[in-house]
Amino acid sequence: MSQQPAENKLWGGRFTGATDPLMDLYNASLPYDKIMYKADLEGTKVYTEGLNKINLLTKEELSEIHRGLKEIEKEWETNTFVEKAGDEDIHTANERRLGEIIGKHIAGKVHTGRSRNDQVATDMRIYVRERLTQLLQFLSEFVKTILKRAEQEIDVLMPGYTHLQRAQPIRWSHWLSMYATYFTEDFKRGKQILQRVNQSPLGSGALAGHPYGIDREFLAQGLGFEAPIGNSLTAVSDRDFVVETLFWSSLFMNHISRFSEDLIIYSTAEFGFIQCADAYSTGSSLMPQKKNPDSLELLRGKSGRVFGSLAGFMMSLKSIPSTYNKDMQEDKEPLFDALTTVEHSILIATGVISTLSINRERMEGALTMDMLATDLADYLVRKGVPFRETHHISGECVRAAEELKLSGIDQLTLEQFKNIDERFNEDVKDVFDFEASVERRTATGGAAKSAVLKQLKNLDSQLN
Ligand code: ARG
């Protein structure tokens, strides 16, 4: 980058010396904030309407400005916008270009009462609103894909785990519904964050407020914001909406990482519950037999990078004095990177879950009788024995079966059961049925078919 005399810069008036070219590079945000070009032009369009409303721009000037803005938008869209040395960021680039198109006399009035401080905060909120809305749309489609699969495969049983040890039988759909529940909460959380993103800083000037009494409610409404932010100092300095969006992204990726980890484990030869489709797997350059679930590993791994963005930006914000400081320019790269990572992750996860195949025999074959030890304890509870006692008795049955080297507790004879506790009866054999075990969990949220179907329906109704 060539050295820039200060008079070429929009803020050049009081500067006489040239800046260090490395400083120009270090200071510039155009390489990454130009993706907000549309939000910036939209902000200027409505802002100039506000200026016209208080007679700081004539009707003719306003229509010239709008003509110029349209042309700039076309240039960005067709990749013909020519960046020039001195274009520090998207705001200065667009304003410089406007002057070239409609003349500096009119273009020079556009920034009356406005500062890049309220401008950038406005652009960021417009941009985040748009991206987040799109992400929530993708997220809702992802959850619906999970729900559809869960409904289709409602009859498949599998082991449920705690500590990664087989615990109790559940439905595969119950597992799917668990993640659908997490992701539906992410969806709802995103909607709530959108409400806080959607507040207008415009008309706050550099910090102290607008000197010409611009109608901030009019500006807010024109840009589709809910209301103006109530304090001009807060308006220009608040980046909580960026932090919240990064937190939202991090938590979503955290959920995705757990979802992926389960599926990676389930796809190992040792488990063999699922197989990732070829479209989302890759081979090994050395071992011909390998098929690796790279999609899932990337979904798991990228959670680290998104959380890094949140932690990094929190650190950038910490302790900076009021109000605008250049540190705040550091909001963009982590945010944009996180939004893109989340977007791609949702789309990949949707592809993975809609194309993976399950192996029902392996899932149900992994169920073992010891997983019904709790059901055996529950059997005696139903006969009036306190649970603490039945837990102990069931444990004795497990131990007896082990000592007798039986394949499971269901292999004990009625006599052997009665030796342990005389309250066991003929009907104890009914306990040893995985389907029956799952079907006993009819309470809200449980593994019974009716309960899972209710969950799916309830989640679906929350996605609109
Ligand atoms: N590029 C700057 C940013 O992203 C715009 C605001 C500049 N404001 C200023 N007072 N230098 O934060």
TrEMBL record:
Belongs to the lyase 1 family. Argininosuccinate lyase subfamily. SUPFAM superfamilies: L-aspartase-like. Residues 13-308 form the Fumarate lyase N-terminal domain. The keyword Lyase applies. One of its GO terms (cellular component) is cytosol. CDD domains: Argininosuccinate_lyase. GO terms for biological process: L-arginine biosynthetic process via ornithine. Pathway: Amino-acid biosynthesis; L-arginine biosynthesis; L-arginine from L-ornithine and carbamoyl phosphate: step 3/3. It catalyses: 2-(N(omega)-L-arginino)succinate = fumarate + L-arginine. One of its GO terms (molecular function) is argininosuccinate lyase activity. It comes from the Eukaryota. Residues 371-439 form the Argininosuccinate lyase C-terminal domain. The keyword Lyase applies. This is Argininosuccinate lyase. Its EC number is 4.3.2.1. InterPro entries: Arg_succ_lyase_C, Argininosuccinate_lyase, Fumarase/histidase_N, Fumarate_lyase_CS, Fumarate_lyase_fam, Fumarate_lyase_N, L-Aspartase-like. It comes from [Candida] railenensis. Keywords: Lyase.
